[in-house]
Amino acid sequence: MVLSELHKGDTAEIIRLNADKMLRDRLASFGILPGEHVVIRECSLARQTIEVEVGATAIALRKDEADKIEVSSD
Q: How many domains does the chain have?
């Protein structure tokens, strides 16, 4: 399952980042790393933007970025 398939209020553990090095480094700088837990806070109407919370950090991701984050729902 990928992050973009989750809905508002869902929580999940990040399993893998299926992205190129530049995007993996960018996501890691926000704390989006394998083993971390994320909470879906908001989704835009067209689900093109997803707001997630990792620890105390809130991040808005584009759908194409969220599609590259493999998760296991809690």
A: 1
For 35, list phi and psi in degrees, rounded to 5.
Answer: 95, -20
SS (H, E, C) the chain: CEHHHCCCCCEEEEEEECCCHHHHHHHHHCCCCCCCEEEEEEECCCCCEEEEEECCEEEEEEHHHHCCEEEEEC
Q: What is the pTM of this model?
A: 0.92
CATH of the domain at 26: 2.30.30.90
Q: What is the pLDDT of residues 37-72, one digit of tens each?
A: 999 999 998 889 999 999 999 999 999 999 999 999
Which of these, 35, 73, 26, lies nearest to 54 by C-alpha position? 35
47 neighbors 74 (Cβ within 8 angstroms): no
